[in-house]
Amino acid sequence: MNEVQETQASPTGNFDVFLPLRSQGALENPFAIYSLLRSVRPVMKMPTEGYDGAGVWFVTRYEDVHSILRDPHFSVDRMRAQVIRDNFERLPSFLQQAAQNVRSMLTMDPPDHTRVRKLVNKAFTPKRVEALRHHIERIVEDLLGEIEPGQPFDVIDAVAAPLPAIVIAELLGVPAEDHRQFKSWAAEIVASIGQPTLQGNRPGVSPAAEKLFEYLGKIIAERRQEPREDLISAMVLAQEENDALTDMELLATSNLILLAGHETTTNLIGNGLLALLREPDELDRLRNDLSLLPTAIEELLRYDGPVQSTVRIASEDTEIGGHEIIEGSLVLVGIGAANHDPAVFEDPERLDLGRDPNPHLAFGFGAHFCLGAQLARLEGEIALRAILERFPNLKLRIDTPKYRPNPVLRGLESLPVSQ
Ligand code: HEM
To answer: What residues make up the domain containing 408?
Structure first.
C-alpha cells in the first residue's frame, strides 16, 4: 500500500475545518460568511468527514464567544481535544510542539497559567509600556525616513512589519538587527497556525521552529552568564531566585512573546490603514481630529482584527445555544464574528472611528486577555499618526490588496500606496 492509500484509509478521515473560510472571497471578506452563519447556524458543528470522535464547533455570536472565553470549564490545553489527540501525528510539527512540549501560557490552564503570566506581566505594566513611547516614535520616524519622497511604497514592508519586530526584539533582549531573520522564521511558523487541516499532512520537522528555538536557547544561555536589562534576563533571574519557571517554560515564553508580539501588530497597522483608505470620510474625520486616535484604534481592531478566532476545549459536557457540546470537543471561538454581531454593535459593517462604547473582543477576554494589548495599541497609534501626518495625500495603488491565506491570523501580504 502506498502512502496516499494509507492516509485515505486512516480511521480519522481527511478534513479541513477552515475550508469555508479559505476561498478568495472569504479571505477578502469573512464577515459576510460570519453573518450568514450567525443567523442560520450560530453554534455550528464543523464537517469532519470520516471522523466521529468529539467534534469541532464554530461559534459566531458575541454572547457565546464572550461566555466561552470567561468560562473556566473551557480549557486551552490542546491535548484535551479528542480530535487533536486522535490526529496528533498528522499535525504540523510546530503545533505538536506547542500542544505538548514547548507549552506557553497561551496553552496552559491554572495554576501553571497563573504562575507564568504573573511573572511576565511585570514587563507589560501600563507604566513600563508607556515608557517606550518616545523610543517607538523614534523607530517609526527612522523607518518612514527611509521611504523615498514622492515614490510609491509598501506600508507592510516599510513600517508595519519591521516596527513591532524591532520593538519586541529590544524588549525581550534579542539583537534588533536580527529582526529580519526571526521575522522570516516567525512568518513560516505563523503560517502553520490556521492550518490544522487534517488532509493527510505529513508532519515533518518545521525547520523554522527548530532554528528559532535554537536561536532563543543560545540567547537564554548568554543572559544566564551575563544578565542585561531585558525581559529574558528578568525571567532567568526569577528562575534562579525562586524557581518560578522551568527551562522549557522560559523558552516557550520567549518564543510566544517573540511570535505573538509582531505578526499581530503588523496586521493592526496594515488592516487598519487599508480600512481607513477605503473609507475616505472616516479618514478625513481622523485627519481633522487626531485626538480620535484612541477610539479609532479600538474600532479598527473591531472592524478588521488581526486575530479572527481562538481555540477552547470543553473540559466537561456542556451546552451552548441549545447544542450539547461533549467533553473533549474543540471549539473555534469566533472573535472576528463576535466583533460584527449586530446584537452588540449597531450597524457593525460600518467603520465608525468614534464608536463608543466598543466592547470588542479583538484581544480576547478573561484569563488569557492579550498581555501585549497596551503595547500593540501604543505602536498602532504612533505608527498611524506618523503615517497620516507625513503623507497627507496617501492613496491605495490597488483596490483589493491580497490577504494572506490564513483564516485565523488575518493580515495583508502587502499594502501598496502612493504618496
Ligand atoms: C494588535 C495586536 C494584537 C492582537 C490583536 C492580539 C490578540 C491576542 C488575543 C486574541 C489573545 C488571546 C488568545 C486566547 O484567548 O486564546 C492574545 C494573547 C496573548 N498576546 Fe496578544 N495580540 C496582539 C499583540 C500582542 C503583543 C504586542 C504581545 C507581546 C508583546 C502579545 C502577547 C500576547 C500573549 C503573551 C498572550 C497570551 C496571554 C495568556 O495566555 O495569558 N500580543 N493576544
So the answer is: 3-418
Compute the distance from residue 369 Cα to the ligand 1 centre, in Å: 7
Mutate to test the pocket of ligand 1, among 102, 264, 332, 335 (most ligand atoms within 8 A of CB): 264
**CATH number of residue 183's parent domain:** 1.10.630.10
Residue 118 CB-density burial (10 A; 0-12 exposed, 13-18 middle, 19+ buried)? exposed
Asked whether 105 lines ligand 1 (CB < 6 A), one says: yes
Neighbours of 138 (CB within 10 A): 11
> What's the CA-to-centroid distance between 13 and ligand 1, angstroms?
32
* pLDDT tens-digit readout, 124-169: 888 889 889 999 999 999 999 999 999 999 999 999 999 999 999 8
Is the torsion defined by CA of 82, 88, 94, 98 positive or negative? positive
Question: How many other CB atoms are found less than 10 A from the CB of residue 291?
Answer: 8
Amino acid at 92: P
Ligand 1 atom at minimum distance from 375 CA:
27
Q: Which three cell numbers stand for residue 176?
A: 534588533
* pTM greater than 0.70 (yes/no): yes
Could you tell me the three cell numbers for 1?
Answer: 500500500
- Computed on alpha carbons and rounded to an integer, the radius of gyration of the chain in Å comes to 21
Q: Structurally, how many domains does the chain consist of? A: 1
